[in-house]
Amino acid sequence: MKYKFLDKLSQDFSELFDDKEDHNVIIEVDHEQNIKTFTAHSAILRYRSPYFNKELKNTVPSIDDIIKTITIQNIPAQIFEIILKYIYYGIIDTENIDTKIIFKLMIAANEFELWELSMKLESHLIQFESSWLKTHFFLVYRSIFINNKFKNLENFCNDIIVKYPNIIFESTEFTSLHESALMSILKRDDLQMTESEIWDHVIKWGIAQNPILPEKLEEWSDENFTTLKTTLQQCLPLIRYFHIPNSVVMDKIKPYKKILDKQLWDDLKQHLMLPDRSIKSIILPPRLILTQELSARENCAPEKPT
């Protein structure tokens, strides 16, 4: 029979964490020029964190050829201390931790390649802290795409966005959205937004990435259009052009026809005049717009963070 004494093991390692005499690693945490120093043991760090394993291999001992010093930037000491304790104890208690701290811990755990902890905290936030996620929606959404690891949170957020797209598209921070996040939204068949609105916001986002573009469209050069086309090269193919009303095509898309592939614009013009004739461009299916959802989202505004 196999007996496990994991609680005692965790207790012993907690005592090792507090042992300041036998350490061989110094970790300097530098956040906004506030530096705090932690001590640790290389064997623990190497086997518990792939990140620290790589750092230790690339770090030369500095004190008596024994002590290695690692500097970590842009992570608050409060967050790192919890992470370091987890590395030693294998335990983290979310009961008495503010939700914002839990979110930061998830991001930090991902950076230190502590996948088990990162995934557990992601699940915890979705299951128990959904209200906080919604209240701090833009912060959450932008963060998960910068890290690009939190697929469950991405799905959680996208499920909200497709029903209430104004949370993102009407936000003052919309133009700071990461390209991969915008693409993730545009790929959704159930995005509750007209294609005309989607076009407007994609153009707005693209122009915002290039502040040197003239404010008046009539002053744009061919080079200006090429700049916008390059910026939007991943997003433009995700728009459902052939489900946009003819009047909108002429009023909104025609002024920017130079950012479209020539074949696409030729097909759009043909579709306006001869909608039953076959074309060469790929026709994406229409989005599954629910009239009730489209009406409801007009009254849905993101909650203000508290």
UniProtKB/TrEMBL annotation:
Species this protein is from: Diversispora epigaea
InterPro entries tied to this protein: BACK, BTB-POZ/Galectin-3-binding, BTB/POZ_dom, SKP1/BTB/POZ_sf
Protein name: BTB domain-containing protein
Listed Gene3D superfamilies: 1.25.40.420, Potassium Channel Kv1.1, Chain A
SUPFAM superfamilies: POZ domain
BTB domain location: 23-96
Pfam families: BACK, BTB
Superkingdom to which the source organism belongs: Eukaryota
